[in-house]
Queue: 2 jobs
Job 1
Amino acid sequence: MNYTHYDYLELPPGASLARIEAAYAQILARFDAGVTQNRDDLSLLVRRIHAAYEVLHDDGARKAYDELLDAQAQQADAELKADLDRQVVRPLRRVQEVPATLNTAFSALAA
């Protein structure tokens, strides 16, 4: 699964700068409170949180990042649409197939 910078800071896209700073401080406070995890995993997570904050608190970097996310979303939508358009449409089937000889006999009787 791909996480965005917004995911790491537990924020929705479009959050205000004040909300970004508050979320960043709150998450760091959780780590200071003694979160017990594997040190390597914790270090990687903290680096990603710092990287997310660095991008989201800078207006220019955030705008470029949001444009990248939008482009990725449009590409994913186009791929999904292409996959759905390619799906095979199967002809309708009867619940129970009638053997050809019996079908011929019924057709002859109906005529």
Job 2
Amino acid sequence: MSLAIISLRQENAASVARLLAGYWTDAADEEAEKQLTRSQLEDAEGALFRLLRNETAQCFVAKLEQEFVGFMMLAWSFSSKGGPVLRVEALYTSPRHRNGGIGRQLMEHAFAIAKLKGACRLQLETDEDNATARALYERLGFELLAGKRVYMAFL
């Protein structure tokens, strides 16, 4: 089984909407993900279409066979010294596919983009109680900056 990381496109936004709605509602398991409402799914799909139109950020989706199983939102910023910074605004893997390396592969994709575009760092924030995500970020070389609640990986 091969995982593909692809850019969000208009034709797959409806399929990816379930992932974004799961992220918003913090769906912790498959059952919670199945109980998403039509309204939640429509709101998520609308947000993805707005993202595609406005080009304020990039969304990459992880596709396993024919199923979308994760996504990552990226946006560009600048450091206080004027260097480009790639920010990971959101990272999510569907509950059924967690702990299978999908988040790691999405993050490796972000590192590749950051290096290709000459970023001085990759930056993200996460909730203090999200031990799984924090462990992943630390394994990937991110450092938690004391007093900032921000993780940074300097390139």
